[in-house]
TrEMBL record:
It is found in: Cytoplasm. This is Cysteine--tRNA ligase. The gene is cysS. Zn(2+) binds at residues 28, 201, 226, 230. Residues 333-394 form the Cysteinyl-tRNA synthetase class Ia DALR domain. Monomer. GO terms for cellular component: cytosol. The lineage of its organism: Bacteria, Pseudomonadati, Pseudomonadota, Gammaproteobacteria, Enterobacterales. It comes from Candidatus Annandia adelgestsuga. GO terms for molecular function: ATP binding; cysteine-tRNA ligase activity; zinc ion binding. Its cofactor is Zn(2+).
Length: 460
């Protein structure tokens, strides 16, 4: 039985879908004022893993992820770059979709733009005004009145909102923002303006998924105020609005700070993909439990390059078309881990143990090696891993760690020269000098693997 940690009450709960064998999922998408970084990759690869597992369990998924294509950051960026908002967002959406495709993310069933849902947003705001949960402020903005929702702050445990009657209206949030001259806007009953951030999600998931949703997800930075505000306005507008499970992904951290565009400490997905296979990036971004923050270090991807390399080497020279799978113990451990709120550390441990078992069977020349390898492929693919031909994968990753982690050309030339000298003496069977060169490479923290035709070097 699958258990999921529900952010709304900080407990692991049995997962029971609202409709039998069907799961509705809404995930807060990207604000497209810039291209995507691997912090976005962490969030969406985590949900991709969750969705893949639910599909494997037999659920039919209806997955909706919005795109915010109107926002103050977008307006400011368009002014700065001196291009239209439409051109800016269109370019960034195309780049986002290309990045996500190259990361091998499953496509959402629907990926609605905020600008295509303005009328739905206006209708929702009208409803909140009629219910006296919203009001028009002195400057023409429409605001949500927090005092009218007595449970505000309760869901995500904000004690400062416990006595809501004593709060002033400075904390009321914007539903509709009046546009200034030369700012984009849409005609509404309150004049020309644009939607606030929080109202977008409520309007979009209500249109595409209705008022009963199994899973609502996003990054942990969205818990408050964004998700709290979503709950408030949705409960006031629809009364019977139900979201059974709230799931939040831990932030990707660099130098003890959240990786983000605004902090200018982000690594673009495209740049990472130029240096690393998408499975290496995925393996790293999934490497810590999805709820916990993940720390990015200079050698982070080297470690997971080597882990995937080990798994793929175990799959070499095995038949990918075997239909009979062995290794039920490994399967049992894997599913126990995944059913425990997607315990990725234990899942990885199972894959590595299974890879070791395959290597042992190879040494014994056991015919069962193909059946165990088939099990490894099966379990890996549930996580979005081990989809490549082993020979092709291993050939492509050989030089990448060295090429991407040290930019000093002298360093590379030095390694190349030593390795060239060593191979010369190996060919001529002068093992004494060859071993001296080998020791020099080992002192540079390199691991060496000699094949018939070449030598593979990679960082330990």
């Amino acid at each position: 039985m699958l258990k999921i940690f529900n952010s709304i009450n900080n407990k692991k709960e049995k997962f029971i879908s609202i409709r039998k064998n069907k799961v509705n999922i809404y995930v807060c998408g990207v604000t497209v004022y810039d291209t995507c970084h691997i912090g976005h990759g962490r969030t969406f690869i985590s949900f991709d893993m969750i969705i893949r597992y639910l599909i494997y369990l037999g659920y039919k998924i209806n997955y909706v992820r919005n795109i915010t294509d109107i926002d103050d950051k977008i307006i400011n960026k368009s002014y700065k770059k001196k291009i239209s908002i439409k051109k800016l967002t269109k370019n960034n959406i195309l780049k986002m979709k290309k990045d996500f495709k190259n990361l091998n993310l499953l496509n959402p069933n629907k990926e609605p733009l905020v600008t295509n849902n303005i009328q739905n947003i206006i209708k929702l705001i009208i409803k909140l005004l009629k219910n006296n949960n919203a009001y028009i402020s002195y400057n023409g903005d429409v605001l949500f009145s927090i005092k009218t929702y007595k449970q505000y702050g309760y869901f995500f445990k904000k004690k400062e909102y416990n006595n809501i009657n004593n709060l002033d209206n400075k904390i009321d949030f914007v539903l509709w923002k009046k546009s200034n001259i030369n700012e984009p806007g849409w005609l509404s009953p309150w004049g020309i303006g644009r939607p606030g951030w929080h109202i977008e999600c409520s309007a979009i998931y209500n249109k595409y998924l209705g008022t009963k949703i199994d899973i609502h997800g996003g990054g942990q930075d969205l818990v408050f105020p964004h998700n709290e505000n979503e709950i408030a306005q949705s409960q006031c507008a629809f009364k019977n609005n139900i979201i059974n499970y709230w799931m939040h992904i831990g932030m990707l951290m660099i130098d003890n700070e959240k990786m983000s565009k605004s902090k200018k400490n982000d690594f673009k997905i495209k740049k990472m993909l130029n240096n690393y296979n998408n499975e290496i990036i995925r393996c790293f971004l999934l490497s810590r439990h999805y709820r916990k923050p993940l720390i990015y270090k200079n050698n982070s991807l080297i470690k997971y390059t080597n882990i995937l390399r080990f798994m793929y080497k175990s799959l070499q020279n095995t038949n990918p078309n075997v239909k009979t799978l062995l290794g039920k113990t490994f399967k049992k451990r894997f599913f126990e881990a995944m059913n425990d709120d997607f315990n990725i550390s234990e899942s990885y441990s199972v894959l590595l143990s299974l890879s070791k078992e395959i290597n042992i069977l190879k040494k014994k020349q056991s015919s069962k090696v193909h059946n165990f390898a088939a099990r490894l492929r099966q379990l890996g693919k549930i996580l979005g891993l081990l989809n490549n031909n082993p020979d092709i994968f291993l050939k492509k990753i050989i030089k990448k760690p060295l090429q991407t982690k040290n930019k000093k050309k002298f360093y590379y030339k030095y390694i190349y020269k030593i390795n060239k000298i060593r191979n010369y003496y190996r060919t001529n069977k002068n093992w004494k000098i060859a071993d001296k060169m080998k020791n020099k490479l080992i002192k540079l923290n390199l691991k060496i693997e000699d094949n018939i035709n070449n030598t593979i070097l990679y960082k330990k």
